[in-house]
């Protein structure tokens, strides 16, 4: 899991405040643990989740990419086409009739 810092992570040494990580930096886990080198400490996901004012959980995005074969381009299947228009009901019915007639000729 990944977390992003909402604000700077600051360490107060008693003499000065030292910025450990800057706002916007992304922290990734290693085997479920988050290691902060400057603090020499390891934290868990629960530790970071307990500090919502500092850490923001980033959603994980799964991206699947595949090459479409030319044969797949011509495969026949069920498809949905959605069209958003701003019009009256009367015009909408005319558009629907036109589309049905035109599309039936193409199929």
Task: Describe the overall structure.
The chain has 107 residues and is an alpha+beta fold. Helices cover 25% and strands 26% of the residues. It is built from 3 helices and 7 strands. The strands form 3 sheets. Strands 4-1-7 form a 3-stranded antiparallel β-sheet, with no helix packed on it. Strands 2-3 form a two-stranded antiparallel ribbon. A two-stranded antiparallel ribbon has the order 5-6. Strand 2 and strand 3 form a beta hairpin. The chain is elongated, with a radius of gyration of 27 Å.
SSE arrangement, N to C: EEEEEEHEHH
Instruction: Show unreliable segments.
Output: none
**Rg, Å, rounded:** 27 Å
Strand order of the largest sheet: 4-1-7
Portion in strands: 25-35%
Overall 3D geometry?
elongated
Largest sheet: 3 strands, antiparallel
Count of strand segments: 7
Mean pLDDT: 84
Number of helices: 3
Q: By helix and strand content, what is the structural category?
A: alpha+beta
How helical, in percent, are the residues? 25-40%
Q: What number of domains?
A: 2
How far apart, in Å, are the first and last alpha carbons? 47 Å
Q: Outline of this structure?
A:
The chain folds into 2 domains: 2-58, no CATH class; 77-106, no CATH class. Helix content is 25%, strand content 26%.
Reconstruct the topology from this structure:
Elements: E1 2-5, E2 9-12, E3 17-21, E4 26-28, E5 33-36, E6 41-44, H1 45-49, E7 55-58, H2 70-73, H3 89-106
Antiparallel strand pairs: 1-4, 1-7, 2-3, 5-6
Descriptors:
3-stranded antiparallel beta sheet, elongated, 26% strand, 107 residues, alpha+beta, two-stranded antiparallel ribbon, 3 helices
């Amino acid at each position: 899991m990944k977390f992003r810092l909402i604000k700077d992570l600051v360490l107060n040494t008693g003499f000065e405040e030292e910025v450990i990580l800057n706002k916007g930096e992304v922290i990734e886990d290693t085997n479920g643990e988050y290691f902060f080198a400057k603090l020499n400490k390891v934290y868990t996901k629960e530790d970071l989740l307990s500090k919502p004012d500092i850490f923001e959980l980033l959603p994980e995005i799964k991206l699947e990419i595949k090459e479409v074969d030319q044969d797949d381009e011509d495969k026949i299947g069920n498809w949905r086409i959605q069209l958003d228009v701003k019009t009256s009901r009367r015009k909408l019915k005319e558009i629907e009739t036109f589309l049905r007639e035109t599309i039936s000729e193409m199929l």
